[in-house]
Amino acid sequence: MSILARNLTKTFGAYTALRDVSVEIPEGRLVALLGPSGSGKTTLLRIIAGLEFADPGSGRIDFHGADVTDVPAGKRGVGFVFQHYALFKHMTVAENIAFGLTVRPRAERPDRAAIDARVKELLKLIQLDDLGARYPAQLSGGQRQRIALARALAVQPKVLLLDEPFGALDARVRKELRRWLRHFQREIGVTTLFVTHDQEEALELADEVVVMNNAKIEQVGTPQEVYDRPASPFVIEFLGNVNRFATKANPLPGAGSDVLYVRPHDVDILREYHGEHGVRVRVQHVFSAGNTGRVALIRVDNGDPLDAELSRVRLAELNLSAGDDAWVVFRHIRLFPAGGFTERDVAAEDASPAVADPGQGI
Amino acid sequence: MSRSHRSVIPGFGLSLGLTLTYLSLIVLLPLSAAFIKTLGMSWDDFWTAVASPRVVASYRISFLASLAAASVNCVFGLIVAWVLVRYPFPGRRIVDALVDLPFALPTAVAGIALTALYAPNGWIGSLAAPYGVKIAFTEVGIFIALTFIGLPFVVRTLQPIIEELEPEFEEASASLGANRWQTLRRVIFPQLVPALLTGFAMAFARALGEYGSVVFISGNMPMRTEITPLLIITKLEQYDYAGATAIAVVMLGASFLMLLVINLLQKWSRRHHAV
């Protein structure tokens, strides 16, 4: 089931949660709504679910071409998983999972045996076969999350919506559940939309990422697209660490003060450099624990801080220690001109030294 | 105290001692006085005092009217508490304050006011009188007085629980296709049951012991509208202290039993909530 949301605006009093947002979710995809808190991502999810409605007169939501804008949540055929699971405490796990089936009107309700069979099947699917008779309070966070998922799936929703599904779990369980969800979504193929503020989670899990900021969508694309070709300074800053430089002398004709971005892993450190594009730096600190080596640097000319990320082998070769002087060169630079110009991908124009000369530009 | 027994929360010994002393002085001592007083009676005297037809009739009216009043308060108290918590409306703070009035009002004042309203020549009583319905000076009058004084107990125990109900549960229920009635009955209500039972127990216990507001409106007709606390007072006025305490002991025993049952019910209804 594809989802099409058009021109949604949502205000809560004086606060605008969504400003004229449109997005399309293709059928069968696993899509992340990524953004900082307050960016409107949860509001968008809740409007798609029918738990919230866009401002009167604004926008429209289609599920597979059918208008569902005014259809309440229970009739949209969506499964919603809440951040804190919202499992019914006074019901057993099996009763929780069966809930959506048992509240159906008598004519549509499966008989007892069919419901029991469905519950059993779902318990197997979430690998908690033996826990049907337990109460939610007796289970761990990861188990509760999976039960919430099974409860949402019991009614065979056409769309699965998850609000910060891993937010309340510890790092190890989160990783495990993430992998499980990905596998699981592939298997059942239901269109799935999840909200997260964790860029790593979005990039790792989703087929497509919708980056949101300040009540608007900044960019939609595959994880690789949004990471490698960010559409705005916000996207590049939100997706992973980045070094940011404001340029004084602008290499591009006609612009004001631009902003240049370099990912730490695109910074190379050299002991000796004789070319034109190097920047003189001093080593502040070397972080050698972890799977890559990180070096905190400052520029000698203006004192700006700068981070570099190198392989541990390379780091060992360089044998840097705090206080050493070195050179850095940038393998890849991204430039966002100031003053509302459309973004230009400097990296794509690397061939032209007039544009991509970092030694001069920054 | 040895080092290994030291707790991060100090003062257990002192505070427990204080608690026991205080409870003994305020609760246990007067209660045991009643028991000791009755111990001086012979079994036959005791039996005549507590099982005479007039006394038995008073137990009946006291328990039934209290039960009915507490039950009605559970229904309407739940609605009042729900409205006060869930819906912002102009004057909500004033309505909220009104709920406490039965707590604050001297019970005799309440009794007189209710009697004036429901007597055959009162505002409400005069409306019912043409149909041959009498409210004041009947069992219905007693029931009304007991409902009046019991309401705040139910509302005030439910309010904090309703405030803590996460809207997520209702949303989860709705997104799974439940209609409002199903959500109320299967998701919300079970979460309120423990508090509702507490409210019921308190309203019931209060109604059983209520005297001031009832004696005016009940008319105190022997065998019909005489409540047990009134009989106790009557006995006291006749200097029949032993007889009065004997009835009191029966009331105590019955109340204790009721509260015990309600507590067990509550424990049972709460069994899944402990994490």
Can you give me a brief rundown of this structure?
Chain A is α+β, with helices and mostly antiparallel strands. Chain A is 27% helix and 28% strand. Chain B contains 13 helices and no strands.
What does this protein structure show overall?
The complex is a heterodimer of chains A (362) and B (275). Chain A has 362 residues and is α+β, with helices and mostly antiparallel strands. Chain A has helices at 41-49, 93-102, 112-125, 141-153, 171-188, 199-205, 223-228, 233-238, 312-318, 353-356, 358-361; strands spanning 3-12, 15-25, 30-34, 60-63, 66-67, 78-81, 159-163, 191-196, 208-213, 216-221, 243-246, 259-262, 267-270, 279-287, 293-299, 305-310, 325-330, 334-336. In chain A, strand 15 (293-299) and strand 16 form a beta hairpin. The two termini of chain A are 48 Å apart. Residues 340-362 of chain A have low confidence and may be disordered. Chain B has 275 residues and is mainly alpha-helical. In chain B, helix 8 (139-164) runs antiparallel to helix 11 (212-218) and helix 10 (180-209) packs antiparallel against helix 13 (241-269). The two termini of chain B are 32 Å apart. Chain B contains 13 helices and no strands.
